[in-house]
Structure formats: C-alpha cells, structure tokens
Amino acid sequence: MTAKLIKGTEIREEILEEITGEVAEIKEKQGKVPGLVTILVGENPASQSYVTLKIKTAHRVGFKEVQDTRSEDISEQELLSLIDQYNQDDSIHGILVQLPLPKHIDEKKILNAIDPDKDVDGFHPVNVGRLMIGGDEVKFPPCTPAGIQEMIVRAGVETSGAETVVVGRSNIVGKPIANMMLQKGPGANSTVTVVHTRTKDMESHCKRADILIVAAGVPGLVKPEWIKPGACVIDVGVNRVGEKPSKKDPNKMVAILKGDVDFDAAKEIAGSITPVPGGVGPMTITMLMRNTLLSLKYRLGLV
Ligand code: NAP
Prior knowledge:
Layout: E1 4-5, H1 8-30, E2 35-41, H2 45-60, E3 64-70, H3 76-88, E4 94-97, H4 107-113, H5 125-133, H6 143-154, E5 163-167, H7 174-182, E6 191-195, H8 202-207, E7 211-214, E8 232-235, E9 239-245, E10 253-258, H9 263-266, E11 272-273, H10 283-300
Parallel strand pairs: 1-11, 2-3, 2-4, 5-6, 5-7, 7-8, 8-11
Antiparallel strand pairs: 9-10
The structure holds NADP nicotinamide-adenine-dinucleotide phosphate.
NADP nicotinamide-adenine-dinucleotide phosphate binds next to loops.
C-alpha cells in the first residue's frame, strides 16, 4: 500500500486563498484589515528569515504588516513599553515577538506582557488555559498544533473515537495537540495517549494509533513496524541531517531535512502521511495568519 500524501504546501495555498477572500470582504464592508506586528531584537539570521517569511505572507493575504526591528542592546523596560504601545494600537490585532531574545531580557516577562487578545501565537498563559477548557473559550489555538489538526481534518481522517498517540510532550507541540485532539467537538473526540522519554514500551502505544502524531526531534525515531496499517501519520519533526548543493544555485549548500519517521518505509504501511519537508512546516505561518484574522473578527464581533 502507498499512503495518501498530506501536503502542507497544498493545504497552505487553500487556506491562504480563503483568508485573502475574507480579508477583502471585511475590508470592503467594514473598512478594516487585520494588523500584524513582528518584533525582532538583534540580527540573528534565522530569526530574520522567519520574520521576513511571516511579513511576506501577511502582505500576500492583505494584512497591514509591521516589522519592528530593535537593536540587541534594547533594555527589558524599553521592550515592555514597545509591547504596551502595540497593545494600545487599534490597528494592530496580532503581536509577535521573535524568539530567542538576548540574554539580558526575560522572555517569559515579555511574552506575558502581550495582551492575550492579541497573542496570535497562543502561548500566553491565559490562552493556554482557554485551550485547556476548550469549546467557545478557545481564542487562539497555537499555530503548529492548529496546523496539524487542520491537516488531519482536510485529509478526511475520522478523529472521533480514534486512538490518537502523540510522541512528545513539549509546550509548543505535544501537550497542546494532545489537548486539542481530546476535546469534545469536530476534528477531535479522540482517545489520546502521550508518550515521551520515560514511557515504557513506546512501540506498543504507537502500534495502537489510528492517528500517530510525532514531535520528538529525533530523526527516524518511529520505525515502520510501529505503524498500524492504514494509520494517519503526522510527522512534525524537522531534523537537519546534512547538507547538499541547492537546486537553484549549486554553489550554495542547503540543509537536508528529515522527519522523526522513516518516511520511505512508513508510506508503504500508513493510510496517509505528511512528508518532511513540505508537510507540517508550511502550516505554522498559515495558522498564524488565520489567528490574526480571527483577532480582527473578534474585535468586530463577527465571531
Ligand atoms: P522539544 O521541546 O525538544 O520536545 C521533544 C519531546 O519529544 C519531549 O517531550 C521529549 O520527551 C520527546 N522525546 C525526545 N526524544 C524522545 C525519544 N527518544 N522517545 C520518546 N520521546 C522523546 O521539541 P518540540 O519543540 O516539541 O519539537 C519537536 C520536533 O518538531 C522538532 O524536530 C522541531 O524542529 C519540530 N517542530 C516543527 C514545527 C513545524 O514544522 N512548524 C514546529 C515546532 C516544532 P521528554 O519530555 O521526556 O524529554
């Protein structure tokens, strides 16, 4: 059997088209567009490229986008004042602070200063609490888990009553996706098991999974024989395992990326599977756009 490929690159295009349409409609009827600010401190090249991609995507879907770059020596107090300024700015609906921050700044203090109603990353403790309660309480589901759930739903995989096994218990992927899959409601209602480094006999848990979500950061951790025939496998892992010359410019080296699942063997057993790259990766920024649009819709009373 060859599994159906769940391609994040294709789902991203569908969702960005939907967002673009909604933004245009709201702009026409209400004269408002979602506003997203990304705050970048310093010149970390990886952070710069993440921020550039976020801003480019925001521009593409018709948002007001602001890239606010500050020097490495900004004080914690100055950064807190800047966040407060955007908290008060009615044209801004989403505030993102690109991590990591310089060592002299307390990241937790900065992230907790963002107005929870503009916390489109969904990491503020208030939004984590809302996610735990579920239902109408949820304002901004965190972007990577929201992307995972969206892929499962759009692939037509039945989640209700399914055995969902999550490998990994991080605050940004494992715990929130486990929580989301067990909620009462569409795209959820699963029976959820979470496994981690202290789990005894991980294989036996994975083998039961109708939906297997792997977010460990260990290349090839999940062996093909751990996969139940026909299961939906979502591989969140992104691991640099080497370098190769770029297709566009053979003089430039690019990273070779592998997931946490042995893809070539797993695709012969699973019913559906995400590739790496091109699977979960493109969904994170897409869901960030959706959360920013949601933020404006909450403000306008449209949801
Ligand atoms: P993390 O914070 O390092 O957490 C990894 C989790 O996996 C931990 O809970 C750890 O267990 C568990 N784990 C690690 N090795 C394991 C093993 N051998 N057996 C069982 N469990 C194991 O990582 P993360 O931030 O969740 O990210 C996980 C992966 O997803 C990374 O490759 C990351 O790059 C990728 N990622 C991709 C996206 C995206 O595509 N948009 C977004 C976020 C993350 P313990 O808690 O017991 O240590």
